[in-house]
DNA sequence: TCGCAATTGTTGTCAATGCAATTGTTGTGG
DNA sequence: CCACAACAATTGCATTGACAACAATTGCGA
């Protein structure tokens, strides 16, 4: 009777996005992070800290999309590894400020080339003009989903 | 001395992809899956089964990017919920074939409209031509990372 | 200013995940 | 045709991660 309701996965945006995301993560872990004894979430925190400088934990949560209690425990581990410091904010004693140590910065700078190479590998065969469209659209869609 | 090695997160593909993926998943869970008592991975399996029909578990692993032992256990739960059946393959008794039940198909058809609406929401303000570029590029990048 | 709600971070708990080992089956080279 | 490698699925076990409850601090409205 009625047409069957169908979901064309091969053309369904959330499927395409998360499938690629998973492949990128798997590659990053296997080829780069494992030797450094870093998990993907640790790397995300370090990358955010490198990119934006010292941050409160709540801002790390926001920028990394990692859940708050997980961030709290990851920061503890990163501090124990000597890659970050955690100290109370001067302006508000309920806040905590996380900052890369010299060792942490060195670690990030050792990883960045591999991270860039990963992006290159993924981008093979895609015109620069198309990649610009992709990145702009990914940012816009994120805004659409979160209201920034 | 040397320029500092930097990673521009706001323009870094893996970051943009996984950040959007997380936002899409969070929305899907909160607004659609939770009321059905489904996890995101359960939904992925159901969607693949709906899209491609009965599948061996190993093929579900391949198409869903979910780890094999997790698929095994999720299928057990889905079967217990009456959404799929699991039976030994006729051609090879080490294989198992998973198939949607009528109840499972009905469930998927109730979810699909919300899934399409999610895609619409994310796509707001993005020209159809750009979206075509995005989807084509996402598929190509996945191929680049996995060799298909 | 006082009280209460919101913010920030931590901890307890338990289900879920991933990895490795295991079982059972199929395919294949010698 | 036999031994052994490859494949498919499951299970054990340790780790992870999410959610909720909590503690501490700050901010705000009446």
How would you describe what is shown here?
The structure is a homodimer of 148-residue chains. In chain A, strands 1-3-2 form a three-stranded antiparallel β-sheet. The first copy, chain A, has six helices and three strands. Chain A has a single domain, classed as Arc Repressor Mutant, subunit A (Orthogonal Bundle). Chain A has 148 residues and is mainly alpha-helical. Helices cover 65% and strands 8% of the residues of chain A. In chain A, helix 1 crosses helix 5. Chains A and B meet through helix 1, helix 2, helix 5 and helix 6 of A and helix 1, helix 2, helix 5 and helix 6 of B. The first copy, chain A, binds a DNA duplex (30 and 30 nucleotides) through helix 4.
The largest sheet of chain A, given as strand count, sense and whether it forms a barrel, is: 3 strands, antiparallel
Instruction: Write the CATH fold name of chain A.
Output: Arc Repressor Mutant, subunit A
Helix content of chain A: 55-70%
Going across the major beta sheet of chain A, what is the strand order?
A: 1-3-2
Keywords, please?
3 strands; 148 residues; 8% strand; DNA-binding; Arc Repressor Mutant, subunit A; mainly alpha; homodimer; globular; three-stranded antiparallel β-sheet
């Amino acid at each position: 009777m009625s047409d069957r309701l169908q979901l064309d996965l091969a053309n369904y945006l959330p499927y395409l996005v998360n499938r690629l995301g998973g492949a990128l993560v798997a590659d990053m872990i296997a080829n780069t992070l494992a030797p450094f004894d870093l998990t993907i979430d640790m790397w995300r925190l370090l990358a955010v800290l490198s990119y934006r400088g010292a941050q409160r934990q709540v801002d790390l949560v926001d920028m990394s999309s990692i859940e708050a209690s997980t961030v709290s425990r990851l920061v503890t581990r990163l501090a124990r590894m000597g890659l970050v410091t955690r100290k109370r904010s001067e302006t508000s004693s309920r806040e905590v400020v996380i900052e890369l140590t010299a060792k942490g910065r060195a670690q990030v700078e050792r990883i960045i080339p591999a991270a860039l190479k990963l992006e290159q590998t993924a981008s093979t065969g895609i015109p620069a003009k198309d990649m610009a469209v992709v990145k702009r659209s990914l940012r816009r869609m994120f805004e659409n989903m979160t209201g920034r």
